[in-house]
Design goal:
Distance between the termini: 31 Å
Oligomer: single chain
Number of helices: 15
CATH superfamily of the largest domain: Nonribosomal peptide synthetase, condensation domain
CATH topology of the largest domain: Chloramphenicol Acetyltransferase
Radius of gyration: 21 Å
CATH architecture of the largest domain: 2-Layer Sandwich
Strand content: 15-25%
Largest sheet: 8 strands, mixed
Number of domains: 2
Amino acid sequence: MTELERNKWYKLDNAAKIIPGTTRGANTRVFRIACELFEEVDRTLLQAALDEALREFPYFNCVLRKGLFWYYLDGTDIQPVVTEDNQPACGPLYFPGRRNLLYKVTYFHNRINLEMFHVLADGTGAFRFLRRIIINYLRLAHDLPKADRADRSSTVEKSDDAFRRYYTKNKQKGQLKRFMATRAYQIKGQRDQNEQMHLIEGTVSAKEFLAAAHRFHTTAGIFMTSLFVKSVIDAMTMKDLKKPISISIPVDLRRFFPSVTSRNFFGVINVIIRAESRDMTLEEVIAKVSAPFKEQLSRENIEKTMNAYSAYERNVGIKMVPLFLKELGVQGLSTIAGTGVTASVSNIGVIEFPEAFEKYIKQFSPFMASLNIQLTTATYKDRMAFGFCSSFEECSVITGFFRYLTDLGIRVELATNDCDRQPADPKPEAAGKQKKKR
């Protein structure tokens, strides 16, 4: 890191501003992206790959500091050290008052993990960093070509605040008020007393999953969300049916605005439905999920939501409020907003690598810490990984999701970070191999 980069500081982007004040307990706001190779990881080579990647992504080497009115990121010369993965997954990376890096790279046998505090980046931005680390590692391990045409962006473009770049003033704040007014169904279960995250990873054939979605005449994204909603409905009591199910779905704004930023740049759509009965068929659920999904997933609506959130940040009155008072307000609003969300479902999408590197990589698995449940998925070649992350020790919703997959004839391979038990078998004759992973 150069002297200029070490002394550089960054304003938090719009999405990152609310994160420090809402980080507490199991809600660490940390996500993990794991890459599983077909070979054991060499720690020395991984360290060299990380060091090289940081020359392209110096923005990530920052510490979080408090200002009078806002938090900000401050460049640091702290050097990240690759370690063996021996700590609870998605544990806290931000500690108030402590100057430490907001990400870490670990390994365990043939898996490489990148964990990152959401202040730095969203899943897409973090994956670009991990992608560079993996390419560097495999190039060093197997003398592969250095060229990577998929990412030719500069360090300045990688650290661009795309929210600020594409903000336009409007008066569309009604969406936020309606969202805050929703009192959604909350998933129930026994929470971990140590506030640690429980991860369950289910891997399926992407071709089989897409074929199943097409049998129901829908897309993979709507199909995944619908399967999850149906699993939630199955866990509800008759009394619970009075409450709406609200699924929060992050949307990568790079799909709508030309940007190669590695920082946060996402919007959110909320699919809110009411279950008519516990006997709703999957076809009926898909029909209910499809309508709000398609309605909200347009550039016009995404832009309105993005600008509405940005407008609060730019409000002169809010700007002048001291940080400690902002934090109290953010915590209160976050608690209220939390009652309006049942769970979150996110899709990193299809992951691609240069052809020379593909044969060394088995799959990618994403996870996002959550007080309730977050389902995150990523697809590499024909392996589609569903990563469930929650503070529940056990949850019938997760088991139900995988049972629906096996009922559709899709073979599921399960893994968990729980060392004291195997994941619940969704259907012994169809589930496939079960195993434990860190």
